[in-house]
Amino acid sequence: MKESIYDNMTKSEKEVANVLKEMGIKWKYEQPIFVWDENKRPRVWAPDFYLVPFGIYVEVCGSEDFDYSYRRKIFDSNGYRVIFLHLYKDDNK
After folding, report:
1. What's the 3-state SS for the chain?
2. Which residue of 39, 59, 63, 71 has the fewest C-beta atoms within 10 A of its own C-beta?
3. Could you give the CA distance from residue 14 to residue 20 in angstroms, rounded to a whole number?
4. pLDDT tens digits for 43-92?
């Protein structure tokens, strides 16, 4: 059986993918991007979604134990527009 892109997504990522699909927004999953970290070392990161028509990335935050402020700082310092969705904060949405 052919593997689906959805097979590699977390529950929260699948929810976001479904909402984007319902809204008719074309997206790419884990599109690699080049960043420089705080020590000017080159890195390749893959935000969860790239919203093609808007040129914006979406990072689905799945845990309050992870330091997303560091990722935001690196994305911002490299000029990337990234929306952080903290879905773990409200299980009702």
Report:
1. CCCCHHHHCCHHHHHHHHHHHHHCCCEEECCCEEEECCCCCEEEECCCEEECCCCEEEEEECCCCCCHHHHHHHHHHCCCCEEEEEHHHCCCC
2. 39
3. 10
4. 999 999 999 999 999 999 877 777 789 999 999 999 999 999 987 655 54
Question: Is residue 85 within 8 Å of residue 93, measured between CB atoms?
Answer: no
Report the phi/psi class of residue 55: left, alpha or beta, with left for phi > 0 and alpha for psi in -120 to 50. Answer: left
The pTM for the full model equals: 0.84
Exposure on the CB side of residue 79, measured as CA atoms within 13 A: 1
Domains contained in the chain, CATH given? 5-89 (3.40.960.10)
State both tokens at 78. Answer: 């490299």
